[in-house]
Amino acid sequence: MFEKLELISADAILGLMAAFRADPDPRKVDLGVGVFRDDRGETPVLASVRTAEQALVAEQTTKTYVGPSGNPGFNQQMEQLVFGAGHPAVKAGRVRTVQAPGGCGALRLGAELIRAAAPDSVVHVSTPTWANHVPLLGNSGLKLERYPYFDAQTGGVQFGAMMAALEKLPPRAVVLLHASCHNPTGADLSQDEWRAVLELVKRRSLLPFIDMAYQGLGEGADADAFAIRLFSAELPELVCAVSCSKNFGLYRERTGSLHVINEGAKAADATLSQLVRLARGMWSMPPDHGAEIVRRILSEAALRESWARELEAMRTRITGLRHELVRQLRAQCPQRDFSFIARQRGMFSFFGITTEQVRRMRAEHHIYMTDDSRINIAGLRAENLEYVARATAQVLAA
Ligand SMILES: Cc1ncc(COP(=O)(O)O)c(C=O)c1O
Q1: Which residues of the chain have pLDDT under 50?
Q2: 152 located within any domain
Q3: In this structure, how many other beta carbons lie within 10 angstroms of the beta carbon of residue 223?
Q4: Known catalytic membership, residue 371
Q5: What ligand 1 atom has the least distance to the C-alpha of 133?
Q6: FRET partner for 343 with CA separation of 20 to 30 A, picked from 140, 155, 166, 270?
Q7: Hey, which residues does 367 pair with through a beta bridge?
């Protein structure tokens, strides 16, 4: 049977990782892979995670199943982290949360729920969006379409064009939005723009599906959840996929949550029963290890404080690097405006160079980024910022 399967070429990012590993040049810089790195270029286990994990290992008495909706304490803590304490939608019993294997699992489960409710739904995603949104949502059977988003001229959002496109959507169209730290562009909506989107979504009866993979890495844990909190207070329905991979550094532990806001408690119970059924059919039960670590961190004051400090340090490192990179680029290539990098948020930016220039950065300067010139800001280090800026100047001048 399998002899009929065609060989698929490796994912571009995996090829880039392999090429970087094989490059013997000591000056090499990896701006490709989407993980946070510290100034030594490492992605360490957070101290808060280490402490929670050690306690977990020492205290856990059983490995028996938890259940298809996951770790109840984790779900409860995640609701508070995402919606904030005392959110009206949570208080009204309109929110149902299930644990999922990472933000990816949450996105897929959300798509399956939408498909179960309305099989002909179309999900509208930004141009561009995170490449994995396409298979994660599309493989559920939902159709995907695009709305304009990134403005390459300004490095910001083409807000007028985005709104004009959303304005034309039929009622019940699904709109996928990035809560903060838009991947791959770093261009986020302002709070006023979110309010305008909310007004449009209400007027056109659209269903927003918000993906939050970087809570705390943009402006702070509360500010990054602004849209989710605003929308869930004002809309009858909303779907939110949340990842703990980046802000807890739990990547391989596959920890995330799906939150569905419903019109009322009765609808919410039906939604939860469907989520449980769908999860049973995909992964049966999500892995508990990462979720239990997060539960412990968020529910124990000292651990939570230590995690909040670590998250703040990650965020400040990224914003500091953004400003410093702009400063170095201004010094090395004053003819080109890179100031948009400092206005953007989160780990990613489009550097705005051509594919040919990307390849020269790699071949001549050992600086690795994807062909579309997406850079992971956290891949920079204080010691190589000037090198990257100089290399950029050389490649742009050629
Ligand atoms: C925009 C976006 N959504 C969701 C995810 C899901 O991450 P994970 O499944 O690793 O939690 C990511 C990870 O890179 C992401 O960038």
Answers
A1: none
A2: yes
A3: 13
A4: no
A5: 3
A6: 166
A7: 29
